[in-house]
């Protein structure tokens, strides 16, 4: 299972569990995350800890999945992208709508949708090895997962624009210094 939920005494551990793929998102992982968040909404815990297994929180979209989508007809390609983006957007919106705090535990690469997902949390705790990068501009696509809405609220508009447009990674220490 690419995403799973464990519950213990009011705490729900929501875990991204595809470490061999650096927790990158293809359609199956996006749907698994969406469905896990739907389950949490049905029976909200006292707190959610969003974490990952492996060396990286999430590198964002699965590039191999996107290459496969490009091989499809234009209609099938559009439908595949719409399914993926719809699932990740619903997952982030669901997390932000939960009636409990959501804490994101970040490590390694936190990029693209991985960063958008993290920004949907109420509080972030980053390991010293965490590297945050917006990444969308580097591949010429618009942000998904609410990243363009959440980022300015965390950093302020000028810093958010710099991060988004210049695509410079932030270390955990730099992110902490920015607040």
In short:
This protein is α/β, with parallel strands linked by helices.
Uncertain runs with pLDDT below 50, 5 residues or more? none
Number of strands: 8
Overall average pLDDT: 88
Class based on secondary structure composition and strand pairing: alpha/beta
| Total count of helical runs of at least 4 residues | 8
Radius of gyration: 15 Å
Relative strand content: 15-25%
Coarse shape: globular
SSE order, one letter for each helix or strand: EEHEHHEEHEEHHHEH
Fraction of residues in H or I helices: 40-55%
Spatial gap, N to C terminus? 34 Å
Could you give a short account of the major beta sheet? 5 strands, mixed
| Widest sheet, order of strands | 1-2-3-4-6
What does this structure look like?
With 179 residues, the chain is α/β, with parallel strands linked by helices. Helices cover 47% and strands 20% of the residues. The protein is built from 8 helices and 8 strands, in the order E-E-H-E-H-H-E-E-H-E-E-H-H-H-E-H. It has helices spanning 27-42, 63-70, 74-97, 113-119, 136-139, 147-155, 157-166, 172-177; strands spanning 3-8, 11-16, 47-52, 102-106, 109-111, 123-126, 131-133, 170-171. Helix 1 (27-42) packs parallel to helix 3.
């Amino acid at each position: 299972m690419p995403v799973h939920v464990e519950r213990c005494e009011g705490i729900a551990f929501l875990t991204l569990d595809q470490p061999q793929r650096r927790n990158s998102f293809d359609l199956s992982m996006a749907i698994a995350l969406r469905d896990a968040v739907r389950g949490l909404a049905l029976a909200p815990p006292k707190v959610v800890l969003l974490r990952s297994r492996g060396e990286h929180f999430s590198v964002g979209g699965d590039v191999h999945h996107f290459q496969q989508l490009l091989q499809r007809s234009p209609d099938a390609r559009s439908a595949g992208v719409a399914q993926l983006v719809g699932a990740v957007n619903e997952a982030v919106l669901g997390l932000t709508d939960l009636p409990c705090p959501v804490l994101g535990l970040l490590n390694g690469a936190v990029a693209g949708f991985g960063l958008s997902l993290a920004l949907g949390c109420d509080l972030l705790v980053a390991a010293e090895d965490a590297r945050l990068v917006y990444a969308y501009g580097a591949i010429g696509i618009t942000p998904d997962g609410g990243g363009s809405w959440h980022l300015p609220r965390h950093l302020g508009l000028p810093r958010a624009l710099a991060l988004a447009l210049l695509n410079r990674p932030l270390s955990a220490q730099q992110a902490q210094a920015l607040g």
